[in-house]
Amino acid sequence: MTLASRLLVGAAAPALAFVAAAVVTSGVLLGSGAAPAEFWKVVLSLPDARQLVSIVNAAAILYLSGLAAAVGFRMNLFNIGVEGQYRVATFVGAVFAGQSLLPGYLNTAATIVVAMAGGAAWAGLAALLKVTRGVSEVISTIMLNAIALSLVAYLLRKVGNREGQVVVTDQIQQSSWVANITLVPGEDTKVYGLALLAVVAGVAYAVVLNRTRFGFDLRATGASESAAVASGVNVKRMVIVSMLLSGAVAGLIGMPEMFGSSHAYGSTIQTGIGFTGIAVALLGRNNPGGIAVGALVFAFLAQQATPLGIEADISPEIIAVTQGVVVLSVVIAYEVVRRYRGRMEQAQVARELGDRQSGEVPV
Amino acid sequence: MPGSAVSLQGIAKRFPGVVANQDVSLDVRSGTVHAVVGENGAGKSTLMKILYGVQRPDEGTIAVRGEQVSFSSPTDAIAHGIGMVFQHFQLADNLTVVENVVLGAERLHGIGDKARAEIDRISTTYGFALDPDALVETLGVGERQRVEILKVLYRGARIIILDEPTAVLVPQEVEALFANLRELQREDHTLLFISHKLDEVLAIADEITVLRRGTTVGTVRPADVTQHDLAELMVGAELPDPGGGESTVTDRPVLEVRDLRVDDHDGRHLLSDVSLSIRAGEVVGVAGVEGNGQTELVEAVVGLRRAAAGGIALGGTDVTGWATRRRRAAGIGYIPEDRHRHGLLLDAPLWENRILGHQTRPPSARGPWIDRAGARRDTSRIVDAYDVRTPGIDHTAGSLSGGNQQKFIVGREMSGDPVLLVAAHPTRGVDVGAQAAVWERIREARRAGLAVLLVSADLDELIGLSDTIQVVLRGRLVGEFDPRTVTPQQLGAAMTGAAPSPAGDGSR
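Structure tokens for the assembled complex are given below, as produced in the milestone run.
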């Protein structure tokens, strides 16, 4: 296949998916008596500076969540527990940071490490269950999500302070806060300083996956477990390590906001990011660049949906339908394109080599 | 003469890179037991899948009771009275016999008393002796198989395909199965019996069709042939000789296996008391009918199966407790039996496949890093040196033909100066040219002092390449032969236990 046709086929899948999502969303709107034109006018309007900053912030957080899920997905390990790992990690990190054991940015760095360890430990439970007892990680991580939510809520009441309607952990000392970055000059809303963690994590993910032996083993296990085992991969060890890594990345999700605006863990913590991350990873095909696009698309749609109720009298929840259909269509479209590409390549190999297949002796 | 129940004419089926069936013709007379025999990979399964509607033939015609048919799914086959009993049972353990039989065929007799009455009737007619309310998980293997047969009868099958039905049975159960089959035959059912166990085939079949390398080589009557004749037909004794050459055997042992035992999950012995030594420059061939332990032996040597007892030493070092990776890094090259499942990442480019199994060593790795440039360079070298026909090393392994995939694997496993090559069926499913190339490479490496453990179903390959041939039967090494004097017929007899072997175990 030439590079051009390869790119064309590659771009066909997401394009198809978005068209399908647009059609289905419009259909749902029509069916519920709303005007699709109004909807698209609001959703596809140009975001202003404040919205733009919000999109970047939300995308950075979603990106980390998507990466956490993707680490497991690359070896067919379905870590559905990013949400729970993120909650546990952020809580543990906040409690640690609130102690102010270390001065200034040392406290920040140590907190990040503690949060990663917390996320990894929570994910490690599922890994242990899988390799010792054969428990499917899908089941155990879903269960662990429920446990994490209750456990953190309980502990928060124990160690937190009541501030009006909410309970929060001790405030982080101001010297450990991470300054926000001005994206648009003159705009009050700013990008979290630790949003850069998303960039660092993305680069690390790409390098580890594509350039290291560990990454090769991980991908090989995902591509064909039987071939990986025959090549000497210890699959149990890989399950544990990749699950720990997945949990550690999940531990990063809460950091940008914690050090950038909330400065504590409170009962108002953003929920559902871990689940959205799974969708983002699927949308981005577990590819570091793809996940970035997926995170931006999701953040954009979520942001644009906010004014729907006021400006078009449409419930903003409709955007969840759009997001859902995008993911579903992408998964289907990629599979269709993958098969098509496989056939094309086989045909091309046969063509370039002449028709040698006919000379093949039967087996 | 009874009429024709099933007639296949000129069947051909091709998969990308391989031809599974070619010019297959088969005529099964009504009310007979017709056996189809052939080595693993000879195309038996594909043929049966075509007859059962799982796959469509690329060429050829199928006629059932004289009527031309075209099946697009097993449902069509069932509608024409064809049923299949799979080797791997397809039963729900937590349901009862009745529930399993009725499942998916609720429309025939409902799910109540009528269904039960029908099951009772069938069970009594053929002497199945099954308790309709027993949970399947409480049944033994033989009983489960009868449930499977009951299922196809319940669906009205008059022509029943049995895929290797005796593979999972102990001898007493085989006897019981044969009694059931004769009962079925008496009721004018037609049975297609797939097997490679020659003694059983001779005992039960009215006619035997032999498949080799995807094509039918003949149909014989049991009265007219011996096991020797059948073995010869199956393995093709008249194939070109891979040629021996000078012996290069040294006195330096590379692989030493002593008293090796390998168990399955239930603790049954898959291999017992296997002792074997391979010296530098020596090729030891292992002959055996599929399923007698050769796969387990290979996997134990490579480290994919744990030894329950005994030990394995490589170059004088005990490696029994070593993981696969460590063994491979120590110089074991491995050409797996199933290249698609164990040898390649089909969706990955060729150069990434060069790294597979060689993750720890140059040129594909440098410390903890993958050496992309090194892997790519060496992939190009293999492609040139082994005549792997591909437009480029960025094409996926899955897009190459089977022969070229195999040449690539051989090239990869010969890289990095292995001390031991474990080769399972190295030329299975490859074209004649590639076969000759692979043989030449193995001989070259042997001259350079490589020790080779060769498992093959192709007796000519074994005789031509090996310095010593071991015969494996039911998990034990039962005979050692000198390839310069042995004939395929003698080997075939030892493999099936038909002739008295040195172990004196000739009951089958």
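The CA atoms of residues 41 and 428 of chain B lie 8 Å apart. Chain B has three domains: 4-235, 252-331+419-432+449-499, 341-416. Further analysis is deferred to the final report.
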